[in-house]
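S1.2 Input.
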Amino acid sequence: MPAVDLIPRPSAGPVAAAYLGLLAREWEPAMPPALLRSRRFLGLLYVLHDRADQLGHVQARYGADVVQDLARGACLSTDDTVRYLAAAVAAGVVVQRGPSAYALRPAAVPDWSAAVDHLTASRERTTP
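S1.3 Output.
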């Protein structure tokens, strides 16, 4: 069985398409090695694109909590998903609209060093 979704679905919309274009063509090549090393952060950004509606608001599938749905989609723990989401918000590529509501920000000029700093600082806090 192929790993791709064989059910055709309509395009996610202009915001998600612009986000994906920036992510694949500009942001990923410009990311520092610290963000690309494990591919988890990058994978979460692609899952965010996949879960976005036409306006770029991230929606949970199957009525689940948004963070848990993103964790399942990116094969991450909930704690890691929260860390990577906070790093994406720090980089400016995602906007937090509420306690569990996120939106894509395709016009952003990412601050990848802020994402690296956030992940480094949060890792140091959790390491005894």
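S1.4 Remarks. DSSP finds six helices and two strands in the chain.
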